[in-house]
Specification:
This protein is mainly beta. The radius of gyration is 18 Å and the shape is elongated. The two termini are about 15 Å apart. It has helices at about 1-15, 55, 95-100, 160; strands at about 20-30, 45-50, 65-70, 75-80, 85-90, 100-110, 115-120, 135-140, 145-150, 155, 165. It is about 15% helix and about 40% strand. The strands form 2 sheets. The protein has a 6-stranded antiparallel sheet. Strands 10-9-8-7-11 form a 5-stranded antiparallel sheet.
């Protein structure tokens, strides 16, 4: 991050990056050594399930949930599913579900017009693929982002869609 900040400072002096920036929430993928241990999770973490357990826990396949609480002693997570239901489960007992899940933690980063970004998740609505690069064209007060993909396509992103970008390592020198 320090190196990225030094690069940003230089780009600002060159006029290639706007002087003002705004804090922006992004989701950073977590790489747990053992995702079956509840102690690795924290309230607020987002879990994206490839395989759910719809009949047992109400967690649909290809869905997301937020961690509400963690019980380290019982090794259980209590989550809120995207449809508003709550479920508790032991990640060690649901191996397939846990092994096929991706865990994200929200972080705040400063974002400026001119910033080079890369997307860390696909978005079907905008036809953005994970790994696509773009340049920030405009940042709205409401968190909306206007970006231009490297293929030339202009896209507007809601704050929710924009959470799946990484710009800490995508600065174009």
């Amino acid at each position: 991050r320090e190196l990225t900040q030094l690069i940003r400072d230089e780009l600002r002096t060159q006029g290639r990056l706007a002087m003002e920036s705004q804090p922006h929430s992004i989701l950073v993928e977590q790489d747990f050594g053992n995702p079956r241990l509840a102690a690795n999770y924290a309230p607020g973490d987002q879990i994206h399930y490839k395989a759910g357990s719809p009949s047992e826990h109400g967690i649909a396949d290809n869905s997301a949930a937020a961690v509400l609480s963690v019980d380290v002693h019982a090794n259980t997570l209590t989550i809120a599913t995207s449809d508003g239901n709550e479920a508790s489960y032991n990640p060690a007992l649901l191996r397939k579900q846990t092994d096929q899940s991706t865990i994200y933690r929200e972080e705040q980063r400063d974002l400026a017009v001119g910033e080079r970004i890369t997307f860390t998740a696909s978005d079907r609505d905008t036809h953005i693929r994970s790994g696509d690069f773009a340049t920030v064209q405009q940042i709205g007060e409401d968190g909306m982002l206007a970006v231009r993909l490297d293929n030339g396509k202009a896209v507007e992103l809601s704050p929710n869609q924009a959470q799946h970008i990484d710009y800490g390592y995508a600065v174009d020198t």
